[in-house]
Structures are given as structure tokens and as C-alpha cells.
Amino acid sequence: MKEAVFLAATKIDPTKVGVPTVNADGNAIQNLLNVVYFWAGLVAVLVIVIAGYYFVTSRGDANQVSRARNAVISASIGLVIVLLAFTITQFILGKVG
After folding, report:
1. Rounded to whole angstroms, what are the CA distances from 5 to 1, 9, 13?
2. Helix (H) or strand (E) holding 47
3. What average pLDDT score do residues 46-60 get?
4. pTM for the complete prediction?
5. Which residues contact 53 (CB under 8 A, 6 or more apart)?
6. Distance CA 2, CA 27 (A)
7. Residue-level pLDDT at 45
8. Do 69 and 55 touch, CB atoms closer than 8 A?
9. CA distance 90 to 97
């Protein structure tokens, strides 16, 4: 019983038990998320531009106008979500990291 208490009280060295070490800087997660947010924002802006093109070339066709309007609305909502996610993660990583 004394041996179990002693073993539990000692600090386990990760290198002695075979746990691999990871050499990464503290900003790896933040850098990865910034790349993801950049591409998501770029796609949203591209969808807005393409939807604008569809709107201009619709020639009054109600289906095309509706399709373009829905695409602009959806892409705008997506862009707002990306911006909010970016803001939230920057706040959290700034406080935690």
C-alpha cells in the first residue's frame, strides 16, 4: 500500500514513459484559424460578387433575381458569422494564450 501511495505522489516524467513531445509555438492554433477565416471570408465575398453578376444579368427574370438575392443574403450572413467567430477566437486566444 505504501508503494502505491509513493508512486501516486511522484511526478511522472513524460519522456520516461514514452509520451512524444510536440515542438510547436504557442500561436499555431491562432495561425491556423486565421488562415481558415481568411479563406471563408474570401469565399463569402466571391459568392456575393457572383450573385451580384447574376442579379445584373437576370434581365428581370423573377427566378434569377430571387436566386441572386438569396445568395447575397446567405453569403452576407456567412460573412458575419465568420467575422464573429474571428472576433471571439481572437478574444479567447488573447486572454488564454
Report:
1. 7, 6, 17
2. helix 28-56
3. 92
4. 0.67
5. none
6. 43
7. 95
8. yes
9. 10
Residue at grid coordinates 446567405 = 74
DSSP 11: P
User: Which residues, 6+ apart, have CB-to-CB distance to 67 below 8 Å?
Assistant: 51, 54
CA distances from 23 to 32, 41, 84 (A): 16, 30, 30
Alpha-carbon distance of 4 to 8, in angstroms, equals 6
pLDDT digits (tens, 9 = 90+) for 1-48: 666 656 555 676 667 777 777 776 767 888 888 999 999 999 999 999
Predicted pLDDT at 28: 81
79, 3, 69, 65: which is closest to 37 by C-alpha? 79
Q: What is the pLDDT of residue 91?
A: 87
